[in-house]
Write a structure and sequence with these properties.
This protein has 420 residues and is mainly beta. Helices cover 4% and strands 42% of the residues. It has one domain: Neuraminidase, CATH 2.120.10.10. The strands form eight sheets. Strands 2, 3, 28, 29, 30 and 31 form a six-stranded antiparallel sheet that branches. Strands 1, 23, 24 and 25 form a four-stranded antiparallel sheet that branches.
Length: 420
Amino acid sequence: MRQFVKIVLPVILLATACIGLPQPRGSGSTGVQVGPVHRVSPSHYVFEPSIAVDPRNPNHLAAIVTSADAFDCDSLNGNCAPILMLDVSQDDATWTEYRLTKGASGDGTVAIAPDGTIYEAGIHNFDRPGVAFSHQGLPEDDVLSVDYEPHFPGVGADKPWMSIDQRTGAIYVAYTAPHPEQPNRYSLLLERSSDGGKTWNASVVPPGYGGQVLPGPGGQLAIAFLTTVGIAEADLLLGERIVAVSTSPDGGKTFSAASTIGKSLGFESATARAGVYYVAYLSGTQQAEQLTVATPRDSARTWQSSVANGPIPLYYAPAAPAPAPAMDIEAYRREVPHWLDPCAYNVHYTFSKDGGKGWTAPRQLNEQPIEGRKAVQIPSGRSRLGEYVGMASTERYAYPLWIDTQGTDGTQANTVRIER
């Protein structure tokens, strides 16, 4: 288990730091080898990366990005339609790109099933239900013939996170939408399929957003998500956020009440390996952020945590000025229509040899600082790299996927192979 965790957790703990300290790139004396940087997508204006690896064939990779057709993408006025692009590799170095969707779409995630089938999920038109795609085998041209009809009820309000149980092939998609019985309330919904996405069954999870499913042994699973305290449930993106977990003993049909892991300053990332859950999230204060990793101690009822970012300073995720307490969201959007990211970023990895109790010194992966001002502006005038760094791993290899800004060629989706 010790060596297994050693390579899994570097992927969970990739982090961006605004004007972070320079760190050496490569393996050094850590015993971990870092390969060359490869560009995944040839598209020029990409953001929101997600990546998956086939656990039976670590050279079989799939990545998904949102691609805009202009640096300043005026999507709200219909002058620019971002779309989802799928990139596939059989050797981690060369990639082939396919256009997934014809209409505007984004917030994509990707996963690979035990039989090698690639599945994708996303949001159609940014205000339509979550959708899923599946295919086995790829065409010779660059357009995939996929089922792009919305599968799920409700209006998707957050990235639909997809997870696949590699033992059973069960597919799980968690997304935020109005509660099916109380449309004035948002809730975290879970869709699950046991027949390759042909049919779906829904479950309602405690209120939250950013849910990520963690398959466990014997039909058990957990879902990690963010929720708020001291504010109306309809406004899930405001208020004091906490990282919480609900567990299910029956494959996602029913869930326990949420248990709190800790207070959070931003989005979380979660995975499960060998029946153990790992949840990474930002903690601390806006002046002193920490990258915290939590693991359960007693069937996910209580959690133990460790700090993984070492000497790397993390700063509160850059965003437009926060709305005043009395300002509603629509008024806020009118008040702050433009915001260019002034920060520069670095992407780091770290790993643990003892199940997440201690961490090696973080090491930098990107070769040059990532400039926020070069990020795609969507909607027009608002910088957007995406909230997450893509992550995928096997027992031996880890593949991060991040948005870079080198040169004058827009933005790039880059990856490396990290090998123990």
